[in-house]
Specification:
Layout lengths: L3 H32 L3 E5 L12 E7 L7 E4 L2 H6 L26 H6 L4 E13 L4 E10 L4 E7 L2 E8 L2 E7 L13 E4 L2 E6 L4 E5 L20 E10 L9 E9 L6 H54 L7 H15 L4 H12 L10 H4 L7 H8 L1 H8 L9 H7 L20 H15 L11 H10 L7 H12 L7
Helix pairs in contact: 1-4, 5-6, 5-11, 5-13, 6-10, 9-10, 10-11
């Protein structure tokens, strides 16, 4: 059974534990909240890889350079069917060497024999590296086109393309690894088996990565392994062998913050260890206290047995008071608890009451057992038992109040008792309690000089003695116990 202080300590530990748990929950919610924050990083050129100490690097460049490009020659059918004649003159080029315009049907024959139009293809690779301590859950890259080109393929995710033609914007999301010309409604050309999406300056291409192809999430950086990264690519065609002018780009991403790196998390970890130490200390204190209580209980039993044996010697001197000491001790403890004294104090009252008449061991039997009224000298001998008992208990330090109870349990509340004629609150509380319990047992048992009282007479006598012989509060406590049947009369 936990003590009051232990309950308070346990409550504080529980509050401490709940506070730590609440802080972890807060971190978790804050973590979830931060996951929903979108970060956008703008880049002027696709070969930009951030500052020297950047934790998130994004760069895009031709694979292998110009030497890895290739040509795609267009036939007349390609030119005609895809509407490319407007870009050509009779030799396939305008005056500045770029694809020209022609509205003359006279050149058609020449073009039909040799259109002279080639598309230059090159593969671009983009790499997103994560050198930060946060996991990138999702991301997307948006490109704004700066020079005319054709987008042929892109991997591994889907591509959202926005074409601006005059005041009209057309948007379509395509899986450029698996598409057919009938499903594409953006401006495009078909060359053989290839579908080429036409891109003009100002058009936008948004790349949505594929989770199935492990382009996201991108785990946090661990120095012990390779830098986590996502790689995607595309094939781009132009009308000459120059590289595509790098489009402007932006990267948007959602992160899963590593809250274990936060100061609050580290503080909480330390507090968890403190809490663990407190719990261990609390458990050890309970074990130690239980062990001590068992030893104390064992000692109490031994002490009580010795005291009861001793008091039985006293009670044996008077056949009319057999068991008197143990009864007074039990009544006294009940009254002490009724007065809201703690359990350990009530037990001390019990021990004191058990020894209250120890001085009678020195009273002659002829006086102690006299059936009639005592003369003055005999009465003085009887009264002396309080001082004799007090002197006998002088060395009993384990029950500190036993000596004062033995000396003062015949004091009266009105100051007319003995041996010191103490009055009211001058009388020790334990002695006031034992006084009431002692008198009750005397009235509730038969003595050599009178019979026991009935319940009504006994209660009347107690009530009449309130404030005269008895402390009123102690007398009221006894009467409450009698009325509730916890102490029986008769």
């Amino acid at each position: 059974m936990l003590k009051k202080k232990e309950c308070i300590h346990l409550g504080l530990i529980v509050v401490f534990m709940l506070s730590i748990a609440g802080a972890f929950v807060y971190l978790s919610f804050d973590h979830q909240k931060r996951m929903k924050v979108e970060h956008t990083v703008e880049y002027d050129y696709l070969d930009y890889d951030g500052q020297k100490d950047s934790l998130l690097k994004f760069h895009m460049a031709p694979r292998g350079g110009k030497e890895d490009s290739w040509l795609m020659e267009l036939t007349w059918d390609d030119v005609y069917e895809n509407g490319l004649m407007e870009f050509m003159d009779y030799d396939g080029n305008d005056g500045d060497g770029s694809p020209g315009r022609s509205g003359s049907s006279e050149t058609s024959g020449a073009v039909r024999k040799n259109p002279g139009l080639f598309l230059h293809g090159i593969t671009y690779d983009a790499v997103l590296e994560n050198r930060s301590s946060d996991e990138i859950l999702r991301w997307q890259a948006e490109f704004t086109i700066r020079s005319r080109c054709y987008l042929a393929k892109s991997w591994c995710g889907t591509v959202e393309i926005i074409q601006y033609r005059g005041q009209t914007a057309t948007t379509q999301i395509l899986d450029m690894r698996n598409m057919d010309s009938l499903s594409v409604y953006l401006d495009h050309i078909v060359v053989g088996d290839d579908i080429l999406i036409a891109l003009y300056p100002g058009d936008k291409v948004i790349y949505h990565p594929s989770g199935a192809d492990k382009e996201y999430p991108i785990s946090h950086y661990d120095p012990a392994i390779d830098v986590p990264k996502a790689i995607f690519g595309s094939i781009v065609y132009t009308f000459d062998d120059s590289e595509v002018e790098p489009p402007s780009a932006s990267l948007s991403y959602f992160i899963r913050p590593d809250f274990t790196a936060s100061v609050l998390f580290r503080i909480l970890v330390c507090l968890v260890f403190v809490l663990f130490a407190l719990v261990i200390a609390f458990i050890l204190s309970i074990v130690y206290r239980t062990k001590i209580e068992r030893l104390e209980e064992h000692d109490k039993k031994k002490l009580q047995q010795v005291m009861e044996i001793f008091t039985s010697f006293i009670d044996a001197k008077d056949s009319y008071t057999g068991g008197h000491s143990i009864r007074v001790a039990e009544y006294s403890k009940q009254i002490a608890l009724e007065l809201d004294l703690p359990e350990d104090e009530a037990q001390q009252v019990f021990y004191c009451a058990l020894m209250h008449d120890c001085g009678k061991i020195g009273i002659p039997d002829r006086v102690l057992g006299k059936p009639g009224f005592l003369d003055e000298d005999e009465y003085m001998i009887i009264k002396a038992h309080t001082e004799v008992g007090s002197n006998m208990l002088l060395g009993l330090t384990s029950i500190p109040h036993a000596r004062e109870v033995s000396r003062h349990h015949h004091e009266r509340f009105d100051g007319k008792g003995y041996p010191d004629r103490l009055k009211g609150q001058e009388i020790p509380l334990y002695a006031r309690i034992v006084c009431v319990a002692d008198s009750f047992d005397a009235m509730n048992t038969s003595r050599c000089y009178r019979g026991k009282m009935d319940k009504g007479e006994l209660l009347s006598e107690i009530h009449k003695s309130r404030g005269v012989q008895f402390d009123p509060e102690v007398a009221d406590a006894l009467m409450r116990l009698i009325y509730r049947g916890e102490i029986t009369v008769g």
